[in-house]
Design goal:
Elements (H helix, E strand, L loop, with lengths): L4 E4 L13 H16 L7 E4 L1 H9 L6 H18 L2 E2 L5 E2 L1 E7 L9 E5 L5 H9 L2 H18 L5 H15 L9 H19 L7 H15 L3 H9 L8 E7 L10 E6 L11 E6 L3 H6 L5 E2 L2 H7 L6 H4 L1 H18 L3 E8 L2 E9 L4 H13 L5 H7 L6 H4 L2 E2 L7 E4 L1 E4 L2 E7 L2 H9 L4 E5 L7 H6 L2 E4 L7 H9 L2 E4 L4 E4 L4 E4 L2 E4 L3 E5 L4 E4 L4 E2 L5 H13 L3 E5 L3 H9 L5 E5 L1 H4 L5 H9 L3 H26 L3 E5 L13 H11 L3 H11 L11 H6 L1 H21 L5 E6 L5 H22 L6 E6 L2 H5 L1 H4 L5 E4 L1 H9 L7 H9 L16 H15 L4 E4 L7 H9 L4 E4 L4 H13 L1
Parallel strand pairs: 3-4, 16-17, 17-18, 18-19, 26-27, 26-33, 27-28, 28-29, 29-30, 30-31, 31-32, 32-33
Antiparallel strand pairs: 1-2, 2-7, 5-6, 5-7, 8-9, 8-11, 9-10, 11-12, 13-25, 14-24, 15-19, 16-23, 20-21, 21-22, 23-24
Helix pairs in contact: 4-5, 5-7, 6-7, 14-15, 14-20, 15-20, 20-36, 21-24, 23-24, 24-28, 28-29, 35-36
The structure holds phosphoenolpyruvate and magnesium ion.
The site of magnesium ion has 4 residues, from α32.
């Protein structure tokens, strides 16, 4: 029979492997058992498993009799080890009750300390400790904490009563409170409970214990825990374990202390103990900032110029023992540890150890250093760094110590941070940025026409749109920080004002965005510049040696190509040529082409675009110096290029010499109800072949030019978007081949090239065997493939997807992390069928998922040849690909 409660410490049997399995006993429980089993001083206790929490939550919040029985038995283990009994009026056992999930969620769930105190046992504690003041202070702490956590009373009421009590006495700090002051306050606290709850503070210690266990179970579903899980991609169905443990006291006078320590510096990674401690205090005092904690080591204290002694100086014996434990634990876990400890009357106890959270910079340094120290091997080092954390190193970040005035929170669409003046349209963004100002472009949602403004802006904020909305995709591509889908942003374009939450703002006001967590803040928050440390390069080099898949980039400007290559891109996986159409200098010719009544008119306009596109491709080929470049022919529906609003129509009418009415009629003709499923992708190439002809010509002419000018012959891969049938591809492939032949003949040059297709429609995936007859490569456009498979609009899903994720309908936003079960199945089918037809077919992914580690792991599993990600995600993809290969 599997156990649901595991005792630890004392003479407990720690041999059941389930007890040291985090998924069973949670991180805290597993590590307490581990520490106890290697002989470290851990106060005895027991862990109620995660499974029991899930059973409780699913079963209508009731405890099973089996659980009650097991807890009673485990409590006897604590009582036997310590030699005290819960509720004993002469010498009571006190316990702590803490949460502990498999993944650490610091501060998100509940804790109760000093449980077991009541009107009788407080006297016993006073007698056994020989310290009345300590006993009554503990009792008031317990009432305060229990009332807040278990009884759900407003803890402000208790804080207030304490403040008033101190004021009445003329005290400044809690330490001045005497025994009778605490006694009086306990009476007052009990009165508050009676008043607020309508019944007395529970005196029955067993009732106290079960109340606390219930509160910890329930705290798994608290709002703040849910939000934390959502932001950190932690599944909602994991549940938490509960740890009940004998209390030890750091507040039993000047030979007692409590503290938190890291075995290495968690922000720099430096190999030096790092931590804080307080004499005569309980753990919560360190965290809550009631008293300013002191430095752990002398070196730190001196570096900071602090007066109060370090633990190393004040308690040399306990410190020496602690330092020994640090080394032991680091060697045991082979990772940096985050440790909570208490010294009770000179004796050291360990309350927790876990792998410490760390910045990306520290993660890299520790991984590389530990290989040097022989603590871990390179493969472990590669797997230890969270690829997503590298983002922190690739974008400017907000100074973590600076205060934040958060107005609202949207989706963290593109990482980094930016402060600047609010601008409400792209032209203003460009103008203001042109005069050297930092601007934040704020839009309801962006359209491709805003690109210049997005480029000019330091950051982008949108009220609508999800993680693969236009704003998000483009911003990530540009490395611009972006917060999207911030529904509390309301814009009044006429008045040039906006509301964010309950604040009124106007164009020109300064705001700050944190693209890492979606926060929108008032005013400027200082930023820190990214720094490419040597450890970063070292680890990436190790990773590159282990990965099988290639990593390309999604880029369409020479600047992006250069950046991506600097980050290690090995080619272009997606060049979205429409971004070139939107360029301010050519949009007139594009519109002229769209508005032309005949093929002849269209060709005349396209002739004007040809040299421009050719120059673009030339610059890209030069930058990519012989690496493969997948260039996608025009994809979005034509109406996206048309003007909006009377002023823009009037302007266009001037330029093309056609009446506004005619232009509007044409725009109307092009209007679509569902443009994502409309006249776009290869459907444009089929109906307006001259567009694709021009683009193919531009590609091959540029390729010939570059091949002639430099030794590095480009390797163009011409990609046809949104193909659903073999026939579409066959027709367009013939067109591309014909143009290539013409250009090669004209230029007297012969170059290798490939023609292939994106797989973005379920039909294309299913028919991949046939389609591969005409395609030399497939690139999975998983943005559209997700949209078309799920029938969920990539631009409109933000409104409901968060709830879907919270309620476990999707584990993660499927536009961020591939829906492996559904969409992934189509990708796998297409890969298999494509290969069956053409064994050497090149397979890659170019949707946003190409930069997501979990999706990259799937790509490795099904043997894709490469992933393609926006430039700033290239290092993430390199590391994730290596981890996938190793795992
Ligand atoms: C895709 O659909 O996944 C893709 C890469 O193309 P786009 O995002 O340009 O539609
Ligand atoms: Mg697409």
């Amino acid at each position: 029979m599997t156990k649901t409660v595991y005792p630890f410490g004392g003479d407990a049997d720690h041999s059941d492997p389930r007890q040291k399995d985090k998924t069973v006993t949670g991180g805290k429980g597993a590590n307490l058992a581990e520490m106890a089993s290697i002989g470290l001083p851990v106060p005895p206790g027991f862990t109620i498993t995660v499974e029991e929490c899930l059973r409780y939550l699913e079963g209508g919040a009731d405890f099973r009799p089996e659980l009650r029985e097991a807890v009673t038995g485990a409590l006897a283990h604590i009582e036997g080890t310590v030699g005290k009994k819960l509720g004993d009026a002469r010498d009571p056992l006190l316990v702590s009750v803490r949460s502990g999930a498999a993944v650490s969620m610091p501060g998100m769930m509940d804790t109760v300390l000093n449980l077991g105190l009541n009107d009788e046992t407080v006297a016993g504690l006073a007698a056994s400790s020989g310290d009345d003041r300590f006993a009554w202070d503990s009792y008031r702490r317990f009432i305060q904490m229990y009332s807040d956590v278990v009884l759900g009373l407003d803890h402000g009421l208790f804080e207030e009563a304490l403040e008033i009590a101190k004021e009445d006495k003329g005290y400044f700090s809690d330490t001045e409170m005497e025994t009778d002051d605490w006694q009086a306050l306990v009476d007052e606290f009990k009165g508050i409970v009676q008043q607020e709850r309508g019944s007395a503070f529970p005196q029955d210690v067993t009732e106290q214990l079960w109340g606390a266990i219930r509160a910890v179970f329930d705290s798994w579903d608290s709002e703040r825990a849910k939000v934390y899980r959502r932001l950190n991609d932690i599944p909602h169905d994991m549940g938490t374990a509960v740890n009940v443990q004998a209390m030890v006291f750091g507040n039993m006078g000047d030979t007692s202390a409590t503290g938190v320590a890291f075995t290495r510096d968690p922000s720099t990674g430096e190999k030096a103990y790092y931590g804080e401690w307080l004499v005569n205090a309980q753990g919560e005092d360190v965290v809550a900032g009631i008293r300013t904690p002191q430095y752990l080591t002398r070196a730190r204290r001196e570096a900071a110029g602090a007066e109060k002694p370090s633990m190393e100086e004040a308690m040399p014996d306990a410190y020496a023992e602690l330092a020994h434990v640090f080394d032991l634990l680091e060697k045991h876990y082979r990772d940096m540890q985050d440790i909570e400890f208490t010294v009770e009357r000179g004796k050291l106890f360990l309350l927790q150890t876990r792998n410490g959270k760390r910045t990306a910079k520290a993660a890299l340094k520790m991984a590389v250093d530990m290989v040097g120290e022989g603590l871990i091997d390179r493969d472990t080092a590669i797997c230890r760094v969270d690829p997503m954390a590298l983002d922190q190193l690739l974008h400017p970040t907000l100074d973590p110590d600076a205060p934040r005035d958060v107005m609202t929170t949207g989706l963290p669409a593109s990482p980094g941070a930016a402060s600047g003046k609010i601008v409400l349209d792209a032209d203003t963004a460009e103008q203001w940025a042109g005069r050297g100002e930092s601007v934040i472009l704020v839009r309801v949602e962006t359209s491709p026409e805003d690109i210049h403004g997005m480029h000019a802006a330091s950051g982008i904020l949108t009220a609508r749109g999800g993680m693969t909305s236009h704003a998000a995709v483009v911003a990530r591509g540009m490395g611009r920080c972006c917060v999207s889908g911030a529904s509390q942003v309301r814009i009044d374009r006429e008045a040039r004002t906006l509301q964010i939450g309950d604040r009124d703002l106007a164009e020109g006001d300064i705001i700050t965005l944190d693209g890492g967590n979606g926060q929108v803040m008032a005013g400027e928050v200082p930023t820190l510049e990214p720094e490419m440390a040597g450890d970063f390069a070292t680890l990436m080099e190790w990773a590159d040696a282990k990965r099988r898949m290639r990593v390309r980039t999604n880029a369409e400007t020479p600047a992006d190509c250069a950046r991506a290559r600097q980050f290690g891109a090995e080619g272009i996986g997606l060049c979205r040529t429409e971004h070139m159409f939107f360029d301010a200098a050519r949009i007139a010719a594009v519109r002229e082409m769209i508005l032309a009544e005949s093929e002849k008119g269209r060709r005349a306009a396209l002739d004007k675009l040809l040299p421009e596109q050719r120059d673009d491709f030339r610059a890209i080929f030069e930058e990519m110096a012989g690496l493969p470049c997948t260039i996608r022919l025009l994809d979005p529906p034509l109406h996206e290029f048309l003007p909006q609003g009377d002023a823009e129509f009037a302007e266009l009418s001037e330029i093309v010499g056609k009446p506004v009415e005619t232009l509007k009629r044409r725009a109307n003709e092009l209007h679509e109800f569902n443009p994502m499923l409309g006249h776009r992708g290869c459907r444009l190439g089929i109906t307006y072949p001259e567009i694709y002809e021009m683009q193919a010509r531009a590609i091959f002419e540029a390729a010939c030019d570059v091949a002639e000018a430099s030794g590095d012959a480009p390797l163009p891969e011409v990609m046809i978007p949104l193909v659903g049938t073999r026939r579409e591809l066959a027709i367009l492939r013939a067109l591309v081949d014909r143009v290539a032949k013409d250009v090669f003949a004209e230029k007297g040059c012969e170059l290798g090239y490939l023609v292939g297709t994106m797989i973005e429609l379920p039909r294309a995936a299913l028919m991949a065997g046939e389609i591969a007859q005409d395609g030399e490569f497939f690139s999975f456009g998983t943005n559209d493939l997700t949209q078309t498979t799920l029938g969920v609009s990539r631009d409109d899903s933000a409104r409901f997807l968060a709830q879907y994720v919270e309620r476990g309908i999707f584990a993660r936003d499927p536009f961020v992390s591939l829906d492996i079960d559904g969409v992934g199945q189509l990708v796998e089918i297409a890969a298999e069928r494509g290969r069956a037809t053409r064994s050497d077919i090149k397979l890659g992914i170019c949707g946003e998922h190409g930069g997501d580690p979990a999706s990259i792991a799937f790509c490795e599993k099904i043997g894709l040849d490469y992933v393609s990600a926006s430039p700033y995600r290239v290092p993430i993809a390199r590391l994730a690909a290596a981890q996938a290969a190793l795992r």
